[in-house]
Design goal:
heterodimer; A: about 260 residues; alpha+beta; 7-stranded mixed β-sheet; 5-stranded mixed β-sheet; about 25% helix; B: about 270 residues; Fumarylacetoacetate hydrolase, domain 2; 8 helices; 13 strands
Chain lengths: ~260, ~270
């Protein structure tokens, strides 16, 4: 499909300039494989500019979301070095198109993890876990998109905030989470909302990244997926996530 | 509100509970009912149950989430009476026919070892009075057709209480992170509701303090041995005959509600 390069360039430009763009597949006729090819080419532009691939993010990690989107697997996107927002600092709303935030849990690997791995093999490759916030941003006009649109648009991933790394010696299957704006609770939940246990998202990440030819390495970061609904970012707010046993993180939002 | 209106509403709710023929909202019967009227209606039916020999074992707190309070246009929780025959153990089959449009929610249950009968009890009084905590699934129910409730309906209807299932391993509240304890309810391996301690009025203990004060105010203070269901930690979920729902609260263990099939009831 000759459009891959064109779509990828358009989506990269939209993300780079924080300008909404037309849908690439409004009728949802594209295969998911084609959509992932566009994503790869999209992110390749970032790598050409000097960004580094640092890991992957998982999306649609709840059964309800998969049913809603008509798929039976999670989706994923690529994380690059410039997408990192340092905990405690401020991000600029003007750098994004339709930015929202959602609470997650992040894994840091100490060993390669690729292909069909078991939950215990996955955990054995984990160096540390941390509370995390993902900034998701659909680059499409009017916030309208099909499933292939989302995947091509890097599964909406555009930023990530990671807190202090903790040894993975706590049970991750049911950690309470509270996401607040300026101290006001926006969403509450549990890590159990992530596929029943976030380790399952890590297992899926190992499989999907390897299939795409970018197997997870020592040092890779995996964002496991949202534990609650996403919330629109508002200028002037301080976004904070408190997570049971793993502490809290936050960032400021500027115009 | 005149007494006959209040008595009529109480009669309607009581008849609905016995017949299974759910009624229209009380606002359709009398739009002017106040929250005080609603508690008067609840009290009439509580007295009726006591006269039948049922025993009050504690209280439930409802409307403890900001979202639900907003839905009903109120800024305070409510309470209802828990009777002895509403309680089930984890894993025990709950007869489907005994339930009224059931939905489930996961909560923390507290059992008291001291009376909370001092004037205006506070957090320290409540902490001192709690013997232990248990994970719980509350099976709420409504005698109002299709749960078409507003604040007056639910208060009058014993705070939409139905039944409850308690876990069986008591924990000391000092060992639990009541703010950030994660909660998940699962059915057939799928999370159907997730939440956290903070979802209940900022902390389940805040709800218990509210209840303790309220019960002193109405002259029926909480007593040693009382069970308190403190309020939902996540969204409520509808259940079907034959469902098995497990709730896990991090630090408190788990509790399982097993629902009988509709056939078992009619047989």
């Amino acid at each position: 499909m000759s459009n891959i390069a064109e779509f990828a360039a358009r989506l990269d430009e939209a993300a780079r300039t924080a300008t909404a763009t037309q849908q690439i597949d409004p009728e949802s006729v594209m295969s998911l494989e084609q959509a992932y090819q566009i994503q790869a080419a999209n992110i390749a532009h970032r790598v050409e500019r000097g960004e580094k691939l640092v890991g992957v993010k998982m999306g649609f990690t709840s059964r309800a979301k998969m049913i809603q989107m008509g798929i039976d697997d999670v989706i994923w996107g690529r994380l690059t070095s410039d997408m990192r927002v340092e905990e405690g600092t401020a991000l600029k709303l003007s750098d994004y198109v339709h930015p929202r935030v959602e609470p997650e849990i992040a894994f840091l690997l100490k060993a390669p993890l690729a292909g069909d791995v078991s939950a215990s093999e996955a955990l054995a490759a984990v160096e540390a876990v941390a509370p995390a916030l993902e900034i998701i941003d659909s680059r499409y006009k009017d916030f309208k998109f099909s499933l292939p649109d989302v995947i091509a648009d890097n599964a909406s991933s555009s930023g990530f905030v990671i807190g202090n790394w903790h040894a993975p010696d706590t049970d991750l299957s049911n950690l309470g989470m509270v996401m607040s704006f300026d101290g006001k609770v926006q969403h509450v939940g549990s890590s159990a909302a992530i596929l029943g246990n976030p380790v399952r998202a890590l297992v899926a990440a190992a499989r999907l990244a390897a299939e795409a030819g970018i197997p997870l390495q020592a040092g890779s970061i995996v964002m496991a997926g949202a534990a609650t609904a996403a919330e629109w970012l508002l200028p002037g707010t301080y976004v904070r996530l408190e997570m049971q046993n793993l502490g809290s993180i936050g960032f400021h939002v500027q115009e | 509100m005149n007494n006959s209106n209040v008595q009529d509403a109480a009669d309607l709710l009581d008849q609905a509970a016995q017949s299974g023929e759910w009624i229209t909202p009380l606002r359709d019967i009398q739009p002017a009912f106040s929250i005080d009227d609603a508690y008067a209606i609840q009290q009439i039916n509580t007295d009726r149950q006591l006269a039948k020999g049922r025993r009050i074992v504690g209280r439930k707190i409802g409307l403890t989430s900001k979202v639900v309070q907003k839905q009903l246009g109120v800024d305070q929780p409510d309470f209802g009476a828990l009777f002895d025959d509403m309680g089930y153990g984890s894993g025990e089959v709950i007869a489907w026919g005994s339930l009224h449009q059931p939905k489930v929610e996961a909560e923390i249950a507290f059992v008291l070892k001291n009376n909370l009968d001092m004037p205006n009890p506070g957090l320290v009084d409540v902490l001192d009075a709690i013997d232990y905590a248990l994970p719980a699934i509350e099976i709420v129910g409504s005698r109002i057709d299709k749960w078409n409730i507003r604040i007056v309906d639910t208060v009058a209807d014993n705070a939409s209480s139905g039944a409850y299932v308690l876990g069986t391993t008591p924990r000391n509240v000092k060992d639990i992170n009541l703010d950030l304890c994660g909660m998940v309810m699962e059915r057939r391996g799928e999370p159907v509701s997730t939440g956290v301690g903070k979802a209940c009025l900022g902390n389940p203990l805040n709800a218990v303090v509210w209840l303790a004060r309220k019960m002193v105010e109405v002259g029926q203070p909480l007593r040693a041995g009382d069970l308190v269901l403190s309020g939902a930690l996540g969204p409520m979920v509808e259940v079907q005959p034959g469902d098995i729902v497990e709730a896990r609260i991090n630090g408190l263990g788990s509790v399982t509600a097993v629902f009988g099939t509709a056939q078992e009831v009619s047989a």
